[in-house]
Hints:
Keywords: Membrane, Signal, Transmembrane, Transmembrane helix. Residues 1-22 form the signal peptide. It comes from Kytococcus aerolatus. This protein is α+β, with helices and mostly antiparallel strands. It has helices at 2-9, 67-73, 198-210, 215-240; strands at 21-22, 44-50, 55-61, 76-80, 86-91, 94-96, 113-119, 127-128, 143-149. Helices cover 22% and strands 19% of the residues. The protein is elongated. A 5-stranded mixed beta sheet has the order 3-2-9-7-8, with helices on one face. A 4-stranded antiparallel beta sheet has the order 1-4-5-6, covered by helices on one side. The chain is built from 4 helices and 9 strands, in the order αβββαββββββαα. It has 2 domains: 2-158, Ferric Hydroxamate Uptake Protein, Chain A, domain 1; 198-240.
Amino acid sequence: MKRTALLISAGLTMAAAPAAVAAPAAGAMPAHTDPSAACAGDSGVTVVVQMPDATHYGCATGDPATGEEALTGAGFELEHDTSGMVCSIGHEGTWYPVEGEDGWTCGDFDGTYWSYWTAEEGDSEWTSSQVGAAEHDPAVGEAIGWRHGDGNKAPADGEVPTPDATGDATSDATSESSPAGSSPAGSEESPTTPPASDEAADGAAEEASDQGQSPWVTWALVGGVVLLAAAVVTAVLRRRR
């Protein structure tokens, strides 16, 4: 009974042929260690596989019929033992567990296995699937996950990738930005000088007009600028004499 319960929680699947190896589907996009490889919006089913070296993410585009089909559609490989259990998952030629390593052979059961998890669109937590990946029909927008162990820990250390419509997975990280009032690195600020010409005066008048000031205020400003310019010119001429 204990073995049966473990097999159910692990999402064991019945293979079409015993000890068969399922290769990535034709045209499948390679999986990545970047969560942004998750499906954007409703473009398909997101696949997450946590291996000892890293957690890998992929997108099975379209509407795969089963969890196993989604796995191969996202660029992974899988192998079943003679009982139909998914005993090993491969990614770009690297398999786990490795056949022959520490005496392990596909079909050996030592209490660890590939557990199968699901997260419906919008969910922030994984749920251990109560049906096998071969029987589970994931919905478009859903995420499925695999992790090798005792079945108690969810893939990606419990985090469900939630990409936005562009395909970029959300994150708590924020990009650095310049403080308010400062210039971006490498830029130079131009010094500001008060207007001292008729063109500047006209510009001030236009700006004041755009801001909704009354005409007499506008012309008062223009007159003040002109008088200031005249005073400057007069002072310069007196010094030259």
